[in-house]
Amino acid sequence: MTEKSGPDSAACCGGEPVLAAAKCCKIDALISIDGRGQIVLPKDVRDKIGVRAGDKFAVISCESEGKVTCITLVKTDDFAETIKGMLGPMLKDILQ
Q1: CATH architecture of 11-95
Q2: Measured by CB atoms within 10 angstroms of the end CB, which terminus of the chain is less buried, N or C?
Q3: What's the whole-number mean pLDDT along residues 16-41?
Q4: What is the per-residue pLDDT across 35-84, written as a single tens digit (0 to 9) for each?
């Protein structure tokens, strides 16, 4: 893997640079964090992903060179299936 700099250098989506991994990552909205550390997901994003009041999420972070480069929110209801999908291929390779 070669060193890159610039906005597409942050690793995400299986280790690929964010913009190069457009097949799985894209910008849906730009949001801010308020003084209490809270964020608001715009209504169109909430509708698109089916978020309802009271839904719970796991926050997953990816690090590269000691810095968080990507965060992902996964509905806890879907967490087990998501983990199986992420770890399943790795475990399959290890067990072979």
Answers
A1: Ribbon (2.10)
A2: C
A3: 77
A4: 999 999 999 999 998 999 999 998 888 888 999 888 888 888 877 777 77
Q: Which amino acid is at 49?
A: I
Q: Which helix (H) or strand (E) holds 74?
A: strand 67-75
> Within its chain, how far is the Cα of 38 from the centroid?
18
The domain limits of the chain are 11-95
* Bridge-based pairing state of the strands 11-12 and 16-17: antiparallel
Within 8 A by CB and 6+ apart from 58, the residues are 73, 74, 76, 79
Q: How many CB atoms lie within 10 A of CB 12?
A: 19
The residues facing 17 across adjacent strands are 11
Q: Are 46 and 31 in contact (CB under 8 A)?
A: no
Type of residue found at 48: K
Which CA distances in Å does 14 have to 7, 9, 26, 88? 17, 13, 14, 14
